[in-house]
Amino acid sequence: MTDTIRYDRGDDGIVVLTLDDPRRGANTMNDAYVASMEATVSRLEAERDQITGVIITSAKNSWFAGGDLDQLGSVPADRGQDVFDLSTRVKGQLRRLETLGKPVVAAINGSALGGGLELALSCHRRIALNNPKTEIGLPEVTLGLLPAGGGVVRTVRLLGLVNALTQVLLQGTRHRIAAALKLGLVDQVVDTPEELIAAAREWIAANPAAAQPWDTKGYKIPGGTPSTPALASMLPAFPANLRKQLKGAFYPAPRNILSAAVEGAQVDVDNAFVIETRYFVELVTGPVAKNMIKAFFFDLNEVSQRDIGEVPPITKVAVLGAGMMGAAIAYVCARAGLPVVLRDVSLEGAVRGKGYSEKIVAKDIGRGRISEDKGRALLDLITATDQVADLAGADLVIEAVFEDPALKHKVFAEIEGIVAPDALLCSNTSTLPITALADGVQRQADFIGLHFFSPVDKMPLVEVIKGEKTSDLTVRRALDVVRRLRKTPIVVNDSRGFFTSRVIGTFTNEGIAMLAEGVAPASIEQASSQAGYPAPVLQLMDELTLTLPRKIRNEYRAAASAAGQQWEAHPADEVIDRMIDEFGRPGRSGGAGFYEYADGRRTGLWAGLSTFAKPDVSIPFEDLKERMLFIEAIETVKCLDEGVLLSVAEANIGSIFGIGYPGWTGGVLQYINQYEGGLPGFVARARQLAERYGDRFTPPPLLIAKADAGEIFA
Ligand code: NAD
């Protein structure tokens, strides 16, 4: 087995352990590590009398990257005992290290995340090299796991229950060095690699009898145990607060972390380790961690690490329309260091659009996130104008004017002769087919959809839409832009609403259809939250405004009739029409929607929704939840079948990062794969929903064919 830890004992008796997995770019907690650590700890114990101390450092850019996700993402449900044994062994090694009876120092020369920080926590002192890129934390929760190398037990004992839970464990926060020092995850920070080892040696010399606080007589957990009155009165609030994060019962990791921390704080260290392992085994053998690891690690890598090849550089961006989207797109371009000309019909409108960036920059300066100089430099990159002549020479055009094809044609016609002759021409339309929009430009091969999501500076996804005439080079140039803006792209083929708008529309329509059936609005909201959606469905519809689905519906209907196709009304249509026409409640921007608003703030569901209530309606709550998850999954399969979607990974990543499909599922197609009974189980349930609620749930042919063939979406 490969040796991943180098062992060097100097004349002074100090052993320097260098983490250096020769087969990988980063050190991970794989089988080779476990074997190497076993041998290392045994040797330290055998040579104990000749040793004065131990320094652990790394030969890689990161110190230690943590668990091996290849392994963790594929543990079968019936291998729980094996995981328990392995985890116990890994923990046992770290326990032997911290009870060696000699000072052990972690000389942290790069990021220590997950298993990496757990190794560091089992050392008596953590000294870190001051590097702005270094991250320290236990992000396991973001993959549906908990840190099972003693991370829960030791952070609770080091920082106290409240800090360990809120600052480290429950959010999986990745701390920069300064924050890690302040919190107490790191004890000391030095500026150079030489100082790092020197400081470690110094500390060893000064602390020959180092031991962990929890192995020291009289030790008490900071802030007390769950039976300490002050803490006891706080803890009951934790599960309630967690509910917000858990979004229903589907995310088991935060719940298990809380249990492991609280139960572990009431017993001795060794029993606490066992408790931690049990809660870990439950997570790692269950479906949610597997889904999340697949989505957040494998699928994300697949879509973000595309080969783009050589493309011409971007030197000047023209953003057309300085409204909500244009203003924010200008900001992310400037943030990436690109000069931007932001154009609107009036100078006043353009200046207002630049104001969006000014606000963010002022806030960031106020919070110390960027310096005043950097903030000013960012703002200097944005020129607000009403003059098309100012767009001369731009090699990237992003159009974000009103959603009106004629207007979009007009603004492209205005600028095409002014910008660079080979400028990339992008539209941020959220629904209009790209091929038809491209009819308005001379260079149709250079035209492409670049669909950002609101709020642009926070949402990580960009949907790149290929029109019929879009060239491959144009696609690669668009991907290069997205990467430059530090976002994740999915590439789809053209269709009305593309992938994201089309699928999210089925979700909002489903919620509204329930209202039409007479379901209590609070139950609808609760069902979507419990299914794991980031925002309740009616609340989301208010944000998007009810006029939007109506406009899209009218466009669809017109397109269907032009193509001689049948148009089918949706049960949500009538509710939407009445909300707008009869009650004058088009959504948040109109000051009233499914919710009431006071001074722009949401105050509660509108009592008038009782108009739609039916006293005798009785729909199982499980159906309410699954109808939303199913309708989006079924529409996605249709997108795949029609060639709108090009890959399963793009469907999964696009659904989570673009349109808020619940992360616990691993994405919209993974939801189908993992449904109880697999694809046949999903098909059977879809048929049942179709019988109860309408043909829109009828499983599409591709789904049935895959289920019959025993395949999954992969
Ligand atoms: P908006 O109404 O906030 O802004 C549109 C801006 O375009 C206005 O400032 C308007 O003055 C300007 N404009 C109109 N005619 C112009 C012209 N001839 N030249 C220059 N500017 C002109 O709209 P928005 O929400 O920012 O949406 C813009 C586009 O982005 C639409 O196509 C929309 O579908 C799409 N989109 C919106 C969202 C969203 O969440 N709002 C998300 C993704 C995509």
UniProtKB/TrEMBL annotation:
Reaction(s) the record says it catalyses: a (3S)-3-hydroxyacyl-CoA + NAD(+) = a 3-oxoacyl-CoA + NADH + H(+)
Domain 3-hydroxyacyl-CoA dehydrogenase C-terminal, chain residue ranges per copy: 497-597
Keyword Metal-binding in annotation: no
One term of GO molecular function: 3-hydroxybutyryl-CoA epimerase activity
Signal peptide (residue range): none
3-hydroxyacyl-CoA dehydrogenase NAD binding domain: residues covered: 316-494
InterPro entries according to UniProt: 3-OHacyl-CoA_DH_NAD-bd, 3HC_DH_C, 6-PGluconate_DH-like_C_sf, ClpP/crotonase-like_dom_sf, Enoyl-CoA_hydra/iso, FA_oxidation_alpha_subunit, NAD(P)-bd_dom_sf
Classification via Gene3D superfamilies: 1.10.1040.50, 2-enoyl-CoA Hydratase, Chain A, domain 1, NAD(P)-binding Rossmann-like Domain
Alphabetized UniProt keyword annotations: Fatty acid metabolism, Isomerase, Lipid degradation, Lipid metabolism, Lyase, Multifunctional enzyme, NAD, Oxidoreductase
Pathway as given in its UniProt record: Lipid metabolism; fatty acid beta-oxidation; Lipid metabolism; butanoate metabolism
GO biological process, one term: fatty acid beta-oxidation
The protein's Enzyme Commission number: 1.1.1.35, 4.2.1.17, 5.1.2.3
Pfam families tied to this protein: 3HCDH, 3HCDH_N, ECH_1
PANTHER family in alphabetical order: TRIFUNCTIONAL ENZYME SUBUNIT ALPHA (PTHR43612), TRIFUNCTIONAL ENZYME SUBUNIT ALPHA, MITOCHONDRIAL (PTHR43612:SF3)
Record-given protein name: 3-hydroxyacyl-CoA dehydrogenase/enoyl-CoA hydratase/3-hydroxybutyryl-CoA epimerase
